[in-house]
Amino acid sequence: MKRLREVEPIISHGEFLSSMCKFIYAQTIVEIGVQFGNSTKKLAEAAKETGGMVFGYDQFSLDEIPLYSSSPGSVGTKEKAVKKLEGLENYYKLTQI
Hints:
Layout: H1 4-7, H2 13-23, E1 28-32, H3 38-50, E2 53-58, H4 66-69, H5 78-84, E3 92-96
Parallel strand pairs: 1-2, 2-3
């Protein structure tokens, strides 16, 4: 008997959320915690298909996040996220909080 993981490919949470946004034809998509922009990219691709917009919010800073500051390399910057989102500029707005 095969385990489910061996039978079906695993999708990322970004792909899952993107699929859900397309399914409900989301016009407004909000993401709290952008980090590197990986999920944001998938959401922006969905927004492009639905004519919607992604609003992403993140601190983009190590100073106030103990978990991130103890894990070097796990913190994204707004610049890194924007680079990841090249070509999708009309479908997202990032805000530093």
